[in-house]
Automatic annotation (TrEMBL):
Reaction catalysis annotation: [(1->4)-alpha-D-glucosyl](n) + phosphate = [(1->4)-alpha-D-glucosyl](n-1) + alpha-D-glucose 1-phosphate
A Pfam family matched in the record: Phosphorylase
Entry protein name: Alpha-1,4 glucan phosphorylase
Uppermost EC category: transferase
InterPro entries: Glycg_phsphrylas (IPR011833), Glyco_trans_35 (IPR000811), Pyridoxal_P_attach_site (IPR035090)
Protein's organism: Leptolyngbya boryana NIES-2135
N6-(pyridoxal phosphate)lysine carried by residues: K666
Amino acid sequence: IRIEDDRTGLEIETLKRAILDNLFYIQGKFPEIATLNDYYMALAYTVRDRLIHRWLISSQTYTKVQPREVCYLSAEFLMGPHLGNNLINLGIYDRMRQAVQELGLNFEALLEQEEEPGLGNGGLGRLAACYLDSMATLDIPSVGYGIRYEFGIFDQDIHDGWQVEITDKWLKNGNPWEIARPEWAFEVKFGGRTERYTDEKGRSRVKWIPDRMVQGVPYDTPILGYETSSTNTLRLWSAQAVESFDFRAFNAGDYYGAVGNKVFSENLSKVLYPNDEQIQGKQLRLEQQYFFVSCSLQDMIRTHCDRRGLPISIFHEKFTVQLNDTHPAIAVAELMRLLLDEHGIEWDQAWHITQSTMAYTNHTLLPEALERWAVGLFGSLLPRHLEIIYEINGRFLNEVRLRYPKDDERIRRMSIIDESGDRYVRMANLATLGSYSINGVAELHTQLLKQDVLHDFAEMYPERFNNKTNGVTPRRFMVLSNPRLTKLITSKIGDHWIRNLQELRQLESFVEDLEFRSEWRQIKLAIKRDLANYIQEQNGIEVNVDSIFDIQAKRFHEYKRQHLNVLHIITLYNRLKANPNLDITPRTFIFGGKAAPGYQMAKLIIKLINSVADVVNSDPDVRDRIKVVFLKDYNVKFAQRVYPAADLSEQISTAGKEASGTGNMKFSMNGALTIGTLDGANIEIREEVGAENFFLFGLTASKVSQIKAKGYDPMQYYIANSELKAAIDRINSGFFSKGDTALFKPLVGSLMYQDPYLLFADYQSYIDVQTQVGEAYRDQDHWTRMSILNTARMGKFSSDRSIREYVKEVWKIDPLKICPPN
Ligand code: 26W
């Protein structure tokens, strides 16, 4: 007989024993008094045990082989729950479910028990998480570096239709997935001044004399790939006081003063900034950025020099750093500082190493999201870095002058320092200059980046610019979230598509298969029924599962135009009021998403949706033909439930504003059709699935700029379009706000007099195409064909494809196979 180890064995009996063992020894409970959370923890530890073996083999292999590694630096990692995903990647999902059930436990309830690490806002943070999954799956040695926020993105509640924010206490029940490594902490300096001195070789050097110091303690989480043993690390830094007591102050009787430093230091990693696409310029945010960047770079250098004994001069051959937007862009100056001041390297060589190490991904063109820091604030916090940035800038601008003599305008635009008014450090310019690769996240976005925001840089260094269209992991967003569809697909084409998503193309040959189409439709219906039950429980609203599930789920932002969707709803409502017997295809409009706490307009749009919902859902004239549902607290866990249930995916941003979008991919992969503009990755999705399987509307990005250049006047559209006017007037009249005509004034006013995101210009086109959607849905058979073709043709949008492109064209890293444990 073979006896399996309780910590690594995969037989059902072993799994059961391991769960009970962990319940006893880790949770310190016997079954009779164990809570659901105790069982969740016992189960999570059982899974973690099985990861750890692979993790240590991976780490040993990296130490031995010393491969080139990628370090993905990101202020956000929106990981979502780990348990289900790890079971999928370990290949023991079904077996574990059986083991758990044989113990008399509810497997689904245990999965549901996990408090998700919501350490990100939206697209950018979730992209980082998908990329970690793909890097591990493709056996790419990599580390994700970020911040272990004690509080992640706030939980959203709705009171009287308004968003209310609640602290996300995700660590309250403990986190079984992480291991603290206090022995590998680093110190990070802040403030103070610099001093020049002459070193023993007679060279002029600089010393930074800070006025405070914080410690970064790493917490490591294993990231296992799918069907491989490669297990990489997500290393998140937590801030701690260097000394928890200031003994001098303590002895002088100032107990509170002594503990103050501890409180102050630990504030650093306390909470995630909940804004996306809107900078705030807060000092604590810059402190967070510098804190995690400094810890991460020190960590890489220690691995390189101390653990591997390699010379610092070849640092860039062994490490490449991917900057996830400009949030970690201070890395350019920090690596320079470490090389110059701590390793005594000369400027030119330090710059060569730095520029050969860094690569920068831009995620947004919105001017209000481009990070810049007031020079005064920057210099008081990071005096040495400001000196280094001035030096980088001075040398660079000399080159620009040589290349483009007498072009002062260009110098002003390209300078890292914005001197047009108050002085600012422009982080995008710093990141661009300091990197060997600069990329956008969809074809159109990269094109606009080169044309617009980084135009001068692209002209000077065209070879550094490239596109890497985003992707999403099919493990989480198909296999885990849509088991029924996964089973059907696998029964037809086998399961290789999970690693090689292009194989979904084989589904095309089943489009003509009546039986297959019927199964496809049944599955969608069953999933819609689940969501309908959830809506019934959550919102007390009864929805018709035969209606179109028309879903817009994403952060709230004016450029994403949730309010355009609302104008469509009101237009349908007005038509029904005018003609109660009108024959329209029944629809359920579902919204989900959070607004930045300080973004009043976004919060007002949430209030508008809930107000319209109240009126429409209870109006007898509507007779259940339209329903409006706002689902609160949209997060990864919930998103996994939503994507599979959609018939229609709303991707309706103003063309040129959404860098890529990734929700668009998740919906379409799960068989939703898209109504969308020619924006971000929508363009590429439409190219792949075929124009006939995509509902296109609206202005193109270039038309948008043209109209704006000519002087856009939304009022003209309002006057000329009676349905648009009726919809706006309906809001304005107080009809949705119990007669309060003031409530939605800011929103309506902004639309009528500015309409910066061109809702009015796109309104008619949107309404017309929505009418086509309604008609198309009536032909269920044809709709099903389109749905199947959407899934079948989404192969390109696996994050595996994105990562393969980064590996080949940017990072130049070889995969390294890890031997499975025996
Ligand atoms: C400093 C404030 C701030 C915070 C976050 C500014 C900007 C951000 C992010 C760049 C916002 C973000 O998540 N952008 C999204 O990134 C996705 C992944 O590339 C894209 O798919 C989305 O289109 C883009 O909006």
